[in-house]
Amino acid sequence: MGRKEKGRSTFDLVQIQAKLEQAPEKRFWRGLEELAGTPEYRNFLQCEFPHDPRQDEKGVSRRDALKWMAASAALAGLTACTKLPTEKIVPYAQQRPENFVPGKPLFYATAMPLGGYATGLLVESHMGRPTKVEGNPSHPASLGAADVFAQASVLTLYDPDRAQVVIYDGRIGSWSTFLTSAEQYRADLLLRKGAGLRILTGTVTSPTLADQINSLLAQFPQAKWHQHEPCNRDSTREGAKLAFGEYVSTVYHFDQADVVVSLDADFLGSGPGALRHAHDFSERRRVTSPQSSMNRLYVVESTPTITGAMADHRLPLRAGDVEAFARALAEGLGVKTGAVAAAVPARVPPDWIPALVRDLEKHRGACIIVAGEQQPPVVHALAHAINDVLASAGKTVTYTGPVEANPVNQSTSLGELVADIQAGQVDTLVILGVNPVYSAPADVHFVQNLLKVRTRIHLSLYDDETAELCHWHVPEAHYLEAWSDARAYDGTVSILQPLISPLYDGKSAHEVLAVLAGQEGLSGHDIVRDYWQRQKPAAGFEAFWQRSLNDGVVAGTALPAKPVKLSGTFATQAAKVGGSQGAGMEIVLRLDPTVWDGSFANNGWLQELPKPLTKLTWDNAALVSPATALKLGVTNGDVLKLRSREQEVDAPVWITPGHADDSLTVHLGYGRRRAGRVGTGVGFNAYKLCASERPWVSRVEVQKTGKNYQLVTTQHHHIMGKEGEEVEEESVAARQRSLVRVATLEKFRQEPDFAREEGGEKAPSLYPGYKYDGNAWGMAIDLNSCIGCNACVVACQSENNIPVVGKDQVARGREMHWIRVDTYFHGGLQNPETYNEVVLCMQCENAPCEYVCPVAATVHSPEGLNEMIYNRCVGTRYCSNNCPYKVRRFNFYLYADWKTPSLEPLRNPDVTVRSRGVMEKCTYCVQRINAAKIAAEKEDREVGDGEIVTACQQTCPTQAIVFGNINDPNSRVAKLKAQSRNYGLLTDLNTRPRTTYLAKLRNPNPEIKE
Amino acid sequence: MAQIFHRSTNTISKLMIYGLVFILGALAYLVYAVNQSPYFTDVNVPRQQPVPFSHKHHVTDDGIDCRYCHTSVEQSSYAGVPATHICMSCHSKLWLNSAMLEPVRASYASNASLEWTRVNALPDFVYFDHSIHVSKGIGCTTCHGPIGEMPLTWRANTLYMRWCIDCHKHPERSVRRREDVFRADYVAPPDQLALGRRLVKEYKIKDPKQLTDCYTCHR
């Protein structure tokens, strides 16, 4: 079925679909390549690393020459030993800083603002260098978890491509010349009462920054403040206004909801509070016994997201049809939407909405309806109205005053700025931390207008597209380098304290604003502290300040719940703004799950992170459903010309099972022109297709170009399968091996042992067994909790000094991640069930890798770890060849960057930086195990349960990963493993894995037949 | 046909064959000897320092405890090389005008670190932890040698893996009472083995299987 055509493989979707329909209940599948059995897929299945490294060098002679050179060098260095180089020890001259013990990390509480909203963090500092980010357990938006962006932000801090100097007019300037000029601008502006001054920021929740801007506006009454966040939350804001007549913030309490309906909302994966949502949501899916209950999630969405993958019922629907669905649902529940008998979209199965209505009514007061950012305000308003009619408002959904300091419609705000420029009313524009030249919607013509402004001042982390067109560019201090404050999704304020002084003399927005306000020389610390000093009584301020810094939250700053009432004119209002788009092809623009709005484009960890579900790396693509691909006659990698709102981009296609038909999703954040060495020129820029009105969804015309582009996905890498198994007959990732075990809650109640192995897990072995007297480390991963958010992958990368290899090497299957998220599908191409499974080293008790190492570089520890000893490894790769789980990674080249000085302080000093020719793999974070063991032994006690937390476990928002001592029957991990849902992967090989899984449960509504 | 080779060729070739074995053996020994020699291991080679600091004077003559300067030895993997501040806690009163101490005063005044030459070094893939050794009754001098007799500091042991493993296999040969750990003049008692076995039990020192596990030191 798979065939090679003009150097690329393609597949027949019709045949795949037919094949799936023949045996729908049996199959779990990894992707279309697998179903089609393309040559690439077979290659990846049969070989650990299918690409022959000898082909890397073109022309044989060079390699041979190197061989001889290496042989001579080996003979020359016969001893194979090197004398250690002489090193210097450089202690402090003055007294060491407080609490400072060399070799012991310190943790400081701070917070990371993303899109203006804060996530509380604890940042690990080794000898004054921040090396690792963890969540702050006392912060409401984190509860100890951190997302991919927070985890990767530490790499951005040390990014050698960050802006390093003040630039004036394209030449290197200095901060002091900026101060002199700023003085002048200020004097000028004072005369004019600030006429002509405009300040452009992103979303601001920082009380201090807002205060500074407001006092600046008081000084310059004619000046104006505009806001532009690349992916703004206007729909959310305007939706609240439509429903309640004012801007309010919504706080969802998923831990109290029995039924959740998502209207195109990826509430587990993105947006403020996503980590908390994931935590609370999974709390309601924690099943310990057949008596446990579970919540139920319905998702209606166009683009497959991780939220959709968690759904008990998922309905792919064009984004433009979601409004009609929402109206029909609202009408069904008795909300007056004002529309004349809302027509249910044809794609909705007839039993869906009535069943959903009954389910919601059964759980009145314990439901949440949540609308997605891509949806227009009216859908948000409808969601509010439904929550209101279901008596959920005040219980599962509460409202507070706006978290943002100055909530405005940001599209309008940017439009007003441009209009003012056109009217010649702007002569000084200060842009703080945003990159509108890259991210402004095309129809505001930002670039042409920006150039009309006489003085343009820009502050940002990178010398980016906007910096290029501004007179002044000031390097911005990273959030780990600067003082600030910011609010979380529920209003809780965190004070951001720096972990390190600015590497490149960067300045924060506070410091730049202070200059404009004539308070030059005021440090960020003074500004933030002054603000809080004014808010609090003088007595006890010092204690308050220390406490707030220590805890990472300012106590009692969460915004109080605010009673709201659905506005009386809601029905007429809703009718007016309604009107979904008709049929035809639509394009949905979304924040990228890894590079976000493009501000992380130069972050290699995030670029290489496989995106959830598609597993694409290093690119964005036009995601389409199989049926749409068939209709368009395209396959993976075919380049389409997308024309929307008079703009065009070329986009390669990626066929995504479960995508809504006649819809096309494109992720933003790519196609950067000036991102840095990593991000420049990667992917295509989809902001061109945005418009201020309805920015995220629009009609699109699609045209084939006949061109092809190589997209790289890791979906068919590291497949666990039987060797030589015939792909045609039985899916590999499949039934026989039962890699994914899943049942409905109903079935689990009847048959709690459904996931148990038939046949003994302890089959006899030729090798003598090990005895584990003391600790025996093990891990349990609850598939019912895991949402596949990828945070563990980046956390592991950061903790274990894992290198980035680049697109070309990923294409050869050489990505280095020690932990990966495998995605499996089940069912037809239209709307498959989706399962995420986190796979890391299983730490087998009968480890196949150990037996084949000729140099004993991988051996068994008395505590049951499969040790990987880098300094012993000679790189035969036998171990990896013999690993059925495909969790070993080989350094084909010197992937770790040993040269860039700014990246040296980034590394975890407790983990070896691996060199070329060395195998590596997950160690269960042995550095953390050893540290805890040493601490316990010094106190003459055993290591307590929960004392050792692996990096993946620590950052997991749903606490799906639990690590501990399985010899202790009271440990959390032992209790999890004792549950009936516990099973191991490929246990028929008698590997006796220490990492086991708890089977996934689904809680479908029996009234809905699928 | 006339003989091509002279009869003596037999002797020569025998010599060469046996000689080759000898030569290879000698080469191997040479390699081993170089590897063990102070040239390679730096053992017993006093290192030049910015200030000719004498452990002999400070430890033996003055009786200063190791931990006065190496402050983190009980808490951290690093014993810690003292900040100039610690030197100055005495030398702001003693030897005020000594020329030898000029770099110390300069460092303190200018807040620029002294750059000491490292004497005891391990490769970067070895994760040694001072604190656990000290708390399990391994004395300073067990690894650092007769530090109280060193006018300039030198490395007392090769710090090769074999040397480490020797002790990890037989901790009873080296372990001493906790109260003796920081004594530079400590001499093992004649009944060391008996004492050692008792202390290994008392201090719950892990069995050699655990102590020689790779992940104990490498990761």
Protein described:
The complex is a heterodimer of chains A (1010) and B (219). Chain A is of the alpha/beta class and 1010 residues long. Chain A folds into 4 domains: 3-49 and 717-723 and 736-761 and 772-1002, Alpha-Beta Plaits, CATH 3.30.70.20; 167-232 and 406-551, 3-Layer(aba) Sandwich (Rossmann fold), CATH 3.40.50.740; 249-400, Dimethylsulfoxide Reductase, domain 2 (3-Layer(aba) Sandwich); 581-713, Barwin-like endoglucanases (Beta Barrel). Helix content of chain A is 27%, strand content 19%. In chain A, the strands form 13 sheets. Chain A has a 7-stranded mixed β-sheet with strand order 9-8-20-19-18-10-11, sandwiched between helices. In chain A, strand 26 (638-644) and strand 27 form a beta hairpin. In chain A, helix 5 (148-157) packs parallel to helix 25. Chain A starts with a strand and ends in an 8-residue tail after the last strand. Mean pLDDT of chain A is 89; it is low at 1-8 and 723-735. Chain B has 2 domains: 8-41; 55-81 and 116-216, no CATH class. Helices cover 44% and strands 1% of the residues of chain B. Chain B is built from 11 helices and 1 strand; from the N terminus they run H-H-H-H-H-H-E-H-H-H-H-H. Chain B has helices spanning 8-36, 38-41, 55-61, 66-69, 84-91, 102-110, 130-135, 140-144, 161-169, 192-202, 208-211; one strand spanning 116-117. Chain B is extended, with a radius of gyration of 25 Å. The termini of chain B are far apart. Chains A and B meet through strand 4 and helix 29 of A and helix 1, helix 6, strand 1 and helix 7 of B. Strand 4 of chain A pairs antiparallel with strand 1 of chain B, so a sheet runs across the interface.
What portion of residues of chain B is helical? 40-55%
**Major β-sheet profile of chain A:** 7 strands, mixed
Separate helix tally of chain A? 31
Low-confidence stretches of chain B: none
Q: Main sheet of chain B?
A: none
* Share of residues in helices of chain A: 25-40%
Oligomeric grouping of the chains: heterodimer
* CATH class identity of the largest domain in chain A: Alpha Beta
Of all protein chain pairs, which has the greatest interface, and how many residues does each chain bring to it?
A-B, 41 and 45 residues
Overall spatial form of chain A: globular
The helix-and-strand class of chain A reads alpha/beta
Question: Radius of gyration of chain B in whole Å, from Cα?
Answer: 25 Å
CATH topology of the largest domain in chain A: Alpha-Beta Plaits
Q: What portion of the residues of chain B fall into strands of 2 or more residues?
A: under 5%
